[in-house]
Each structure stands twice: as C-alpha cells, then as structure tokens.
DNA sequence: CGGCGCGTAGTACCTCGGTACTACGCGCCT
DNA sequence: AGGCGCGTAGTACCGAGGTACTACGCGCCG
C-alpha cells in the first residue's frame, strides 16, 4: 500500500486525483494540501510515501516545497506534476530533489505507474520531457570515460601529470599546487608544462577547459 | 501503425518480442536482425519507425549499431534494451543517439508504452535507471538559469560582460577577444577586470570554471 | 651494466594577465 | 541640465605563468 499526499491549489484537481488514486487498491490518499507551506507541514506530519506536487501554486510554489521536503530528509518522495512542460520547471524541480516529473495530461495508468516507481525508489520523467533532458544530458556530460577513440593526450599523461591537471582544473595557481602537493614551484611548472604539451593546450586556461571537457574537473570543485 | 525492427542475437528472445508486438494491433514487426551489421542494413532497407535493439551481441554490438543508424539520418528511432543496467551501457547508448533505454525485465505494457513514446518522437528511460541518470544530471548540469537565489554576480553582469565571460570561457586571450569583438585590448582588459570583480574570481582561470559551472561555457567550444 | 621513463628541482628570460586609475561619448531617467 | 550606467580606451606597473634548458635520483627492463 502506497500512501500519497496530494498537493494542488485547485480543489477540483485534488478531487480528481483523489478519485483516481482511490479507484485502485494499491494507493491510499492520506491527505491533501492546497499550497507549498501546507504541503511541507503535512508531509512532516503524515509521512506519505509519495507527495504528488503541483508546481504552480500561490504562496510557496511546488519547487520550493519540494526543496524543503527533500531537505527535511524524511522518506517521502516527491513526484512533481505540471500542466506546462517548461524547461525551467523541470530543471528546478529535479535540482530541488524531486524523484519524478510528469505532465498532468498523462494517462491515468502512467500516473499510477509513476507513483509506483517513485514509491519504490526509482524515478520517472514524462517521455515528452525525457527527450529534451537527454539531449542536454548528452551535451553536458561528455566523454564519461575515455570512450570516444580520439583522445589527444589524456591517455599519455602520467599519473602525476593527471593529478596536476586536475589541480589546474580547480583553478589553483602553481604556488598553491606546490603547497598542497608539497613540491617546489619549479617542479609544478615542469609538470604543467609537460601537461600542456601533451594535451595540446597553449596555457593553463585551455588546460582547464580540456579538463572539463574530459570529465576530469567537476562542478563540485575545491 | 508502428513498424518495428527487432534486433537480438537470441532467436528465442526475438520470437518473444515478435509474439508480444503482434498481440497488439498498433505495432507491426517488419523484420528481425541477429547482430549489429544486419540491424544497420535492415534499418536502411525497411525504414522501421522503431528499432528494438539489444546491447550485447556478437560482432557489432548494439551501441555501435545505434550510432550508425542515428548517423545515417533516417527517421528510425532506436530503443535500446538490455538485461544489465550497467551505467556504461546507458551512457554509451544515449551518447550514441538512442531514443530510449529499457530493461528486458520490463512489463509488456511498459515496453509497448516505450515503443509508442519513441515512435512519437519522445524518449523513455527505465525508471530504475532514471534515478541514477538524474543524480548525475543534477551534478553535471548546474544552475541552468539564475534559479537558486544564490547567484554571486551572474545576474549583475551586463550583456557585454557576459559576452566577454563566454569568450574567456572559450580560452581566448585578451588579444583574441579584442580581435573578434573588434575592440582594443585595453577595453577587453577593462571588461574582464569588471567581470572578475563581479563574479568573485581572482583570475580568468577561475572565471572559466565559473562559466562552466554556470552553463555559460559548453563542451562544443570554439 | 646501461638506458630510459618519471618525478623532482633549478635558473634565466619574457610575455601575458590583472590592477589601479583616468577619461570620454552616448543614452536614459529625473 | 545634470547624473548615472555602460561601453569604450588609455597608461603604468608588477607578478604569475610559460619556455628553454639543465640536472639528478630512483626503479625497471633488456
């Protein structure tokens, strides 16, 4: 049995979800909320398996509510629903920690399948959104490992040189690298110089770019 | 009516898909292939709406076949199926241009829904994989737009300054930027200096990192 | 043993980048 | 009319970065 909290500012919409979810035995609507603040409060109180969250709501919106629910650390998972497939919503929701994102025009069985998946710890994305998400994903997440044959130098770097490159990718100066690796600055310069030659970069800036493009540098830097 | 090409090296597996897809009126299996090379050939010949592609196959595997089919530019979409949810497969398949990735233990209706979605130009990912994909996505694709309140400067940049930052993110020197923007190097320096001050970077290297972290710089650089 | 790759270290030199500060024209708002 | 933001441009200065070249100890391999 999956317990669900329905969050939507439209009473009629809530009623519809209620009807749908009660029509099958596996889901049980344990509560409703009309805005973000109420959603956060009731989630803490009722501890539902799944929070069915509308995005557009007066006051605290669904994104912010999602963020707080996820931050609270309970076991409730958030499935975001919206009429609009605006990219910003999707991004914001996923970054807020939502486990899923579906459109309200989804067929009932899709919604139920989504709730089921989210409840079991998986994630769902509406097919119509998945395409765009994947395009972006493929753009942003490049050569995960040294896959695509062409590999101008990465493989020829020694372990030490790769370490140095990562450090350069963090934006550290030669002096900082020397300090953290307990080396002389001269040595760092020698390493950096060799790295630049091997990867075909003319300066450390292009080395940073190289590092990002090849997955050596990460946004969670420093 | 959706036409499907079934690709799998196991005859029994192909038979199973054939049975399933023929049991519903909306799909029509127009051909089968036992390995990658045959899949590429038959896709070109039969022009199916959807290619149901197994990953593990002797000879050319499903990933390479997917890459070639997508590169060929036809309207056939590839839905990759596998028994193993290995990350490398998922990554490779998506980068190869697959429109979907499902596990073979999917329930029949899920598979059919997937085929339907892919045929209509959408994309599908098995829920079990979506979670991991999203985690990574959230890691790699940072603040897409100035969403999360904290925004040390990006919003305060003028249009010109943002242009400059993008150029810096491409690894261009001040001289190159001056040349491409038809400016004096002094002006570029002034702009760069202001950008650094606004985003809180101490040098252009950290500006490059900032640009990447905020989605201003792209792997498809230069 | 001798050579080679690698990591370490140094010197010398010059360029590029960044800072500080000034300055001016343009457009917009008050 | 005056002020302000923005884009433009300049000078002067200095430190970090990069190049070129040399050097040495260590471990591995033929």
If you had to describe this structure to a student in words, what would you say it looks like?
Two copies of one chain form a homodimer. In chain A, strand 1 (2-7), helix 1 and strand 2 form a beta-alpha-beta unit. Chain A has ten helices and six strands. The first copy, chain A, has two domains: 2-139, 3-Layer(aba) Sandwich (Rossmann fold), CATH 3.40.50; 154-213, Arc Repressor Mutant, subunit A. Chain A has 222 residues and is of the alpha/beta class. Chain A starts with a strand and ends in a 9-residue tail after the last helix. In chain A, helix 2 runs parallel beside helix 3, helix 7 (159-169) crosses helix 10 (204-213) and helix 8 crosses helix 9. The first copy, chain A, has a six-stranded parallel β-sheet with strand order 2-1-3-4-5-6, sandwiched between helices. Chains A and B meet through helix 4, helix 5, strand 6, helix 6 and helix 10 of A and helix 4, helix 5, strand 6, helix 6 and helix 10 of B. Chain A binds a DNA duplex (30 and 30 nucleotides) through residues 158-161, 173-175, 183-187, 189-193, 196, 202-204. Chains A, B: Residues 150-215 form the HTH luxR-type domain. Chains A, B: Residues 3-119 form the Response regulatory domain. Chains A, B: Pfam families: GerE, Response_reg. Chains A, B: One of its GO terms (molecular function) is DNA binding. Chains A, B: This is DNA-binding response regulator.
């Amino acid at each position: 049995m999956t317990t669900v909290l329905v969050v939507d500012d439209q009473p009629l919409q809530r009623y519809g979800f209620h009807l749908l979810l009660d029509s099958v035995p596996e889901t049980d609507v344990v509560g409703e909320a009309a805005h973000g603040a109420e959603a956060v409060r009731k989630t803490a109180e009722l501890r539902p398996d799944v929070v069915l969250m509308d995005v557009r709501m007066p006051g605290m919106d669904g994104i912010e509510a999602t963020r707080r629910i996820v931050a609270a650390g309970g076991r409730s998972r958030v499935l975001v629903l919206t009429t609009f497939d605006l990219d910003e919503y999707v991004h914001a929701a996923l970054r807020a920690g939502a486990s899923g994102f579906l459109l309200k025009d989804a067929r009932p069985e899709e919604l139920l399948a989504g709730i089921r998946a989210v409840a079991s710890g998986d994630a769902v994305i509406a097919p119509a959104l998945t395409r765009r998400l994947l395009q972006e994903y493929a753009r942003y997440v490049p050569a995960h490992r040294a896959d695509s044959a062409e590999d101008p130098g990465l493989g020829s770097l020694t372990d030490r040189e790769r370490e140095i490159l990562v450090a350069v990718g963090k934006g550290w100066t030669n002096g900082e690298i020397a300090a953290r690796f307990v080396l002389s600055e001269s040595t760092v310069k020698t390493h950096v110089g060799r790295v630049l030659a091997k990867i075909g970069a003319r300066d450390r800036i292009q080395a940073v770019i190289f590092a990002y493009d090849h997955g050596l540098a990460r946004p969670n830097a420093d």
